[in-house]
Amino acid sequence: MHRLFRIPAGGPPRHRSTRRAGRGRLRRSAAVLTVLAAVAGTSSFAGPATDADRTPPCALQRTDAHHSLGLDTWNDAYVRPERTVDAMMVFLSFPDSEPLITPGRLAADHFPATGAFFERASYGRFDLRLHAAFHWAEMPSPSERYGIARDWDAEDRAAYLRDAIDVVDPQLDFGDYDVVYFVADPDAPGVESDATKVVNFREPVSVDGTELRRIVTVFERFPADRNVLAHETGHVFDLPDLYNRPQDGKGDWDTYVGDWDLMGSQFGLAPDPFGWHKWKLGWLDDEQVDCVGGPGTSIHALQPLGRAPGGAGPGGGTRLAVARTGPSEVVVAEVREPVGNDERLCRPGVLVYRVRSDTASAGGPVEVLDGHPRTAACRSTSVHAPLADAPLGVGESLSVDDGAVRVTALDRSPTGEWTVRITRT
């Protein structure tokens, strides 16, 4: 259930005594604000390894790459999306613009849709619960003075964050929330929708005794792009960007994964997270992943990735077949059908992709392997039509790395289970 809460006059709706000692509101010193100006940025760094090593041999090791897709440990610098995660949404106005939209309408533009997306993706294992302050907090400077842009000047960005924290601090105890969204008035003249992103701090910034590691800054138009907040929230959970950003900014951004996975494009026809992402986030158990061993042939019965639970395990049945092809590389096969978050997908079937744990966010950590490289599909709706028909149909095969791995979709049962053969030479 995804609810909106108005912050009562006495403070936030509840307090977690285990988060930090004491509730005294500490005023930030000039030194702290100087640190914020110096270290606010858009890069994150690997945190400490906190989990025991995973046993499956196809679970890649986490590397120092930004948002590494290694699975052996969890980066404790990021929120882990399990059970309930509390998110706070605050709304920022500017003295040079009178808001035309109420905070309530802006909140409803993102929720409950964002929470419902993650509920489906996680098979009900994860509840992103929204709390919101339904009033505007006015920033001290005009919107155009902050220079808001996709490639934001670091000093301007730090000034924006510093001012935003100052104006909401009297209303908000940051220690009560796992995720914080700063939502700007979309009609203010200096607000640029393409600037929406997660801002990470090189070192945690202490506010009210709570260490802030990142804040989601939202500058979306109204109504917002579909799944845009879910995409940004995915970064809070240590998921990488899967798009390819051209050097001149004018080329095709979607050549790596096309419509598959919202971390590639929030407009994608099949935005459900890849099974590898679900495994990383704990939404799939190790028992639901078949690791393909050495040379030979193996047969795998795979359930559609987006299917709701119907058997053992959180997602019910085996969802991934994974062949390790290098120290930091695997080839993955999963079934994508028009269910759950993928109800609008273009072509169903067995999707094959490569994962590299040593490749940073936006550098191609995931690459969809095209089962039909000479054709395209859904040109009017797909973000990248050449990959819209990438999945294999019954009887079709895909050869990877000059035949080192061959994936064949043998059959689809009336219940939707696919039989997949993987051959390694």
Helix and strand content put the structural class at: alpha/beta
Roughly how much helix do the residues carry, as a percent range?
A: 10-25%
The rounded distance between the terminal residues' Cα atoms is 49 Å
The percent range for strand residues is: 25-35%
Q: Within the largest sheet, what's the order of strands?
A: 1-5-6-4-2-3
Number of helices: 7
Low-confidence parts: 1-53
User: Describe the biggest sheet?
Assistant: 6 strands, mixed
Number of strands: 15
**Residue-averaged pLDDT:** 87
Gyration radius (Cα, Å) is: 22 Å
| Shape descriptor | elongated
Helix and strand sequence:
HEEHHEHEEEHHEEEEEEHEEE
Task: Note the topology.
Layout: H1 30-39, E1 40-41, E2 83-93, H2 103-110, H3 113-121, E3 126-138, H4 154-168, E4 179-184, E5 197-207, E6 210-218, H5 228-236, H6 275-281, E7 289-292, E8 296-302, E9 320-326, E10 329-336, E11 349-356, E12 366-369, H7 385-388, E13 397-400, E14 405-412, E15 418-424
Parallel strand pairs: 2-3, 2-4, 4-6, 7-9
Antiparallel strand pairs: 1-5, 5-6, 8-15, 9-10, 10-11, 11-12, 13-14, 14-15
Helix pairs in contact: 1-4
Give a quick set of tags describing it.
6-stranded mixed beta sheet; disordered N terminus; elongated; alpha/beta; 5-stranded mixed beta sheet
Can you tell me about this structure?
By secondary structure, this protein is an alpha/beta fold. The protein is 15% helix and 26% strand. The chain contains seven helices and 15 strands. Strands 1-5-6-4-2-3 form a six-stranded mixed β-sheet, sandwiched between helices. Helix 1 crosses helix 4. 46% of the residues are buried.
